[in-house]
Write a structure and sequence with these properties.
- The protein is of the alpha/beta class.
- The chain has a single domain (about 10-225), classed as P-loop containing nucleotide triphosphate hydrolases (Rossmann fold).
- It contains seven helices and seven strands.
- It has helices at about 35-45, 85-90, 105-110, 115-125, 145-155, 175-195, 205-225, and strands at about 10, 20-30, 55-65, 70-80, 95-105, 130-135, 160-165.
- Strands 1-3-4-2-5-6-7 form a seven-stranded mixed β-sheet, with helices on both faces.
- Helix 1 crosses helix 6.
- The longest helix is centred in the C-terminal third of the chain and has 21 residues, at about 175-195.
- The protein is globular, with a radius of gyration of 18 Å.
- It starts with 8 loop residues before the first strand and ends with a helix.
- Residues about 215-225 have low confidence and may be disordered.
Length: about 230
């Protein structure tokens, strides 16, 4: 049992009210590890049996209510093909969270994790949140990557979250994005309470910056009226 097992949430549709917070997430990893599949299953509860490689990137949103706050995740699902790597790096900018996906039946995809970690840290805010996700647990009989080893790698790199998922069965697919929203919301709240806000580990979107500025203005007016 972890602190993320009992999150009080409500998934909202595309017609959700205006979000209180909007966070950019990028999904990265080698080709054919199921990045698009886990994103679609987790956000739309949709799974397609036939594999279709992503060309460049795909964009979608996921709206969820947590702690009476409406959060919009702006999700950039990237391709894993080497020839598009330079294109992918252009989408790292201003990401609040990077989700690195490998497949538990592919040792090669797991061995690429270090490279993906180095790349995201070199291209974004050095304190960007990073998740490590082992996908395709429905292929347990073909497993090549030991869960304990993967979890140890996540700890060694001081990553923010590790979990195994299955796009095919839906195992932990939605939970992945609920946890992402929860962690980013909590981090924003910590940011809001920091006296030295330059030390925040979160990159704010335009909507979040405006919300913070409005909060600061309200506090200033309140102090002036005393």
């Amino acid at each position: 049992m972890t602190e993320y097992d009992n999150i009080d949430f409500e998934v909202l549709g595309e017609d959700a009210p205006t979000a209180n917070f909007s966070f950019k997430i990028i999904i990265i990893g080698d080709q054919n590890v199921g990045k698009s599949s886990i994103t679609m299953r987790g956000t739309k509860n949709f799974f397609k049996e036939v594999y279709t490689p992503t060309i460049g990137f795909e964009f979608l949103t996921f709206n969820v209510r947590i702690k009476d706050q409406i959060i919009k995740l702006q999700i950039w699902d990237t391709c894993g093909q080497e020839r598009y790597r330079s294109l992918i790096s252009s989408f790292y900018r201003n990401s609040c969270l990077a989700i690195i996906v490998y497949s538990i039946d592919s040792q090669n995809s797991f061995e690429s994790v270090d490279q993906w970690i180095d790349e995201i840290k070199s291209q974004t805010n050095p304190n960007v949140k990073i998740f490590l996700i082992g996908n395709k647990v429905d292929l347990e009989k073909e497993r090549c990557v030991d869960k304990n080893i993967a979890e140890q790698i996540a700890k060694e790199h001081n990553l923010d979250f590790f979990m195994e998922t299955s796009a095919k069965t839906g195992e932990n697919a939605q939970k992945l994005f609920i946890v992402a929203a929860k962690i980013l919301l909590d981090e924003y709240k910590r940011y809001q309470n920091e006296s030295d806000r330059d030390k925040s580990s979160i990159t704010l979107t335009t909507e979040n910056r405006e919300a913070l500025e409005n909060d600061n203005e309200k506090q200033r007016k309140s102090k002036c009226s005393c």
